[in-house]
Amino acid sequence: MEQHAIKLFKLWLLMLLLIVSLSLSANVKYILLPDQPQGCILDHYKLSTDNLYGIKKSVELFSLTFIDGIAIDRNKLDQHKDLNLILMAVLPDLEGNRDWTEIHLDSIKNDTIPHQYLKRLFGANTYADFDKTYGAKTKYFDEYQIIRKIGNKYYSSKHCLIQFFAIRNRPSIFQNMFGTINIEQEPLKITEMEAIFKKRYPHEEFPAYTIGNTPYDYPTFDYLRDRREYLSKVVKFKNGKMGYQFWTYTDWHTHDHELEVDRGIDRFIYVPGKGIVGGSFDFYFYFHRKKLPIKYSDFLNNVKEEKVMIAPEFKV
Questions:
Q1: Which domain holds residue 246?
Q2: Percent of the chain topping pLDDT 90
């Protein structure tokens, strides 16, 4: 009787796990990237992970730049001070070698979202609506996958991070909410911010260096109030373009078994008219650190030295 009950329990547990797995799979939505974007700009870059994370893989960045209700032209971006940018980052499959999988559009037609929905998602995560209540979540990992056309076939990403930036270029006196790219603010390196922080909080750990910390470490970082992107430096590339490198002021605070998705692209380079051309994804690679040849000290040095991956088209 007891063994029969155990078998029934195991069967019930297996069915429950299967239902949860199917449910999670069904919840994935797909975004079809346009072949020829209309009224917006789509940029695509491929970054090597070798120098930063010690593994021969790649990260692909897709930057969608737009303005609600206005068609924009790449050659006329200087006319607009305020732009919107959606970053879709395809992160490498560290369990295998399949970053993209061929897919048939008919099989996912009920789970493909229109671009207008993506723009509404932008507003819901960039404080665009003054009468709404906002939570801590501003980024999405593996909840949405992008589909691209190569030749006559379509391919879906396996691991995709989506996050949103409001480009608002103006003097530093104006507030820069979390998720803001502002190339006119006064540059501040992460080590300079560390010195300011330690002077004000001498007995606390600098939030940007808390990599590997967990909720049990009782962080004192003012999570919703203090998060923001700081301009670190301006970079001139050999192709004549000017890049603006940013770092994200936030901490590490999730459990070891969780991906700290809200960190997103924690350091990045933005080029006006070209989108985001480089960056780092420490949250993802640190989670998979056992598969990498680099150590904790390497991750920390990457943060302190503000190292990033960068597209080969943009070399200093």
A1: 29-310
A2: 67
